[in-house]
């Protein structure tokens, strides 16, 4: 690894957000293991994926090649701090109005755009993500695309929304069918679909408020 990609030098020149996952892991580990430099070890761990690393138990983490208890403890502590910071920093999303505050950008989208807000057990925002972008009149959404990120970030519930480029937020028949489909998928996964908002031009409709979603 040359000086242009060394983690500390990159951090000093460009800031923490410029670092790749393997560079961040190298900073946490500080040194390599038997037969592997810290950069090689960090790359191996990054290749496993952060979500996979977070799911490991302490014994499983210790058993990874080149780690051991000290490095495994440092890595797991860093991952847990990151998870906690996401869980504690987000604003509450307990009403349709609070959800709309996080979704107003959909009003200006020229194509139908489907977005999800992923919430913790206290209905605070963990993560928001654009799930799908469709055409001027329709967007196709599969439950796995909606609930995959929810499982990754440990969400307890979610709010979904999409816009109507026409400006009229009246839910269509397809909107109602999709809401029921997602609600059923969520129940199977143990995740509540709290609401589905349809966004118009400076306005919205909540399918929960319309009585079309029972939570």
Could you state the order of secondary-structure elements as H and E? Answer: HHHHHHHEEHEHEE
In DSSP terms (H or I, runs of 4 or more residues), the helix count works out at 9
Distance between the termini: 53 Å
User: Could you give me the name of the CATH homologous superfamily of the largest domain?
Assistant: Cytidine Deaminase, domain 2
Q: What Rg do the Cα atoms give?
A: 21 Å
Q: Do you know the CATH architecture of the largest domain?
A: 3-Layer(aba) Sandwich
CATH topology of the largest domain: Cytidine Deaminase, domain 2
- The best one-word shape is elongated
Report the major sheet: 5 strands, mixed
Poorly predicted regions are none
Question: Helix proportion of residues, in percent?
Answer: 40-55%
Number of strands: 5
Q: Which CATH first-tier class of the largest domain would you pick?
A: Alpha Beta
| Proportion of beta-strand residues | 15-25%
Structural class, from secondary structure content?
alpha+beta
Q: What is the average of the pLDDT values?
A: 89
Supply the number of structural domains: 2
Give the spatial strand order of the biggest sheet. 2-1-3-4-5
């Amino acid at each position: 690894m040359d000086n242009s990609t060394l983690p500390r030098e990159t951090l000093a020149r460009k800031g923490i957000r410029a670092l790749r996952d393997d560079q961040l892991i190298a900073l946490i580990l500080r040194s390599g293991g038997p037969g592997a430099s810290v950069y090689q070890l960090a790359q191996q761990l990054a290749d496993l994926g952060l979500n996979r690393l977070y799911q490991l138990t302490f014994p499983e983490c210790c058993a990874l090649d080149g780690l051991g208890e000290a490095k495994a403890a440092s890595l797991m502590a860093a991952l847990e701090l990151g998870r906690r910071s996401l869980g504690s920093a987000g604003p509450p999303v307990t009403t349709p109005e609070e959800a709309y505050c996080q979704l107003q950008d959909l009003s200006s989208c020229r194509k139908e755009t489907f977005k999800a807000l992923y919430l913790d057990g206290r209905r605070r925002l963990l993560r928001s993500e654009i799930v799908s972008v469709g055409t001027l009149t329709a967007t196709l959404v599969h439950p796995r695309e909606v609930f995959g990120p929810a499982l990754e970030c440990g969400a307890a519930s979610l709010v979904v929304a999409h816009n109507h480029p026409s400006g009229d937020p009246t839910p269509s028949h397809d909107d109602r069918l999709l809401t029921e489909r997602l609600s059923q998928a969520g129940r199977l996964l143990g995740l509540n679909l709290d609401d589905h908002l349809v966004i118009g031009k400076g306005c919205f409709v909540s399918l929960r408020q319309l009585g079309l979603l029972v939570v």
